[in-house]
Amino acid sequence: MLNAIRSKLKPVVTNNISSAATTATRHELSTATGSADAYWESVKHTHTVETVEPVDAAAVAKPEGFFRVVCISDTHSLTDKLVVPDGDLLVHAGDFSNKGSKADIVKFNEFLGRQPHKHKVVIAGNHDLTLDESNIEELREQFRCKDTETPAQLKALLTNCIYLEDALVEVEGFRIYGSPWTPYFFGWGFNLERGAPIRAKWDLIPNNVDILITHGPPVGYGDRTTGGNYAGCADLLEAIQSRIKPKLHVSGHIHEGAGLTRDEFGILYANASTCTHRYQPVLPAIVVDLPKKN
Ligand SMILES: [Zn+2]
Ligand SMILES: [Zn+2]
């Protein structure tokens, strides 16, 4: 199936892919395969993916003039024994719950309250589905949610952090933008089809963002599944590299893709999943020191 798609698309895939061809390729491949696998295969030789060692926060004190960002994600309500290193900013890139129950949200908020970080920024993931106002009735029915609170009421329970949903916040001069959307995957929360629907969300991201948080990774950077597929978002990669160019991108979602990488523009990509593929909450936080803004 994949080979057939690849050979069919060969004429439009060149070293110097035009924007129209890229769009057609992205759309066709993602709709047919449900992943960006073949797309990445066709463009990966044009990109650098360098593995980077995160800061060892236990061993290295924050240098003078730096802002320490501590990234976690995908804790899935398994926070009882979780120890997170201190820093200026704690980022959680979504999937803090299992199915968005009120109990999970309250538990997560209490966990956040115990953390020492001066600033805490959180987005939702596909598992935090009761926060998805766009599709709440259908999701509640599909996942048999018992809580009756509205998404707005549940979000209001997150009192110990700044919750971002397609929104920007400025923290100590850093422009931080967060968005929960991921390419369609069995109809969980904040799912959108690849191509135009999800691209419309990435189009909302302003320029000059320093730290971009999305629940899912872009294709090629922290998105390889245990099956060897690249499940990230091709449209997100294009938005990041051609326009937004943040210093740091933080995601989770593909638990087995956890780690820190850097591209040819010097952009860092942290897949900060805390849980492994088997939902063991043992992966270390990814710590990055950024030069202070002011
Ligand atoms: Zn997850
Ligand atoms: Zn997820």
Automatic annotation (TrEMBL):
Pfam families in the cross-refs: Metallophos (PF00149)
InterPro entries linked: Calcineurin-like_PHP (IPR004843), Metallo-depent_PP-like (IPR029052), UPF0046_metallophosphoest (IPR051693)
Domain Calcineurin-like phosphoesterase, first and last residues per copy: 67-256
Source taxon at top rank: Eukaryota
SUPFAM superfamilies the record matches: Metallo-dependent phosphatases
Gene Ontology molecular function, alphabetical: hydrolase activity
PANTHER family named among the record's database cross-references: CALCINEURIN-LIKE PHOSPHOESTERASE DOMAIN-CONTAINING PROTEIN, METALLOPHOSPHOESTERASE
Protein's name in the database: Metallophosphoesterase domain-containing protein 1
Native organism: Capsaspora owczarzaki (strain ATCC 30864)
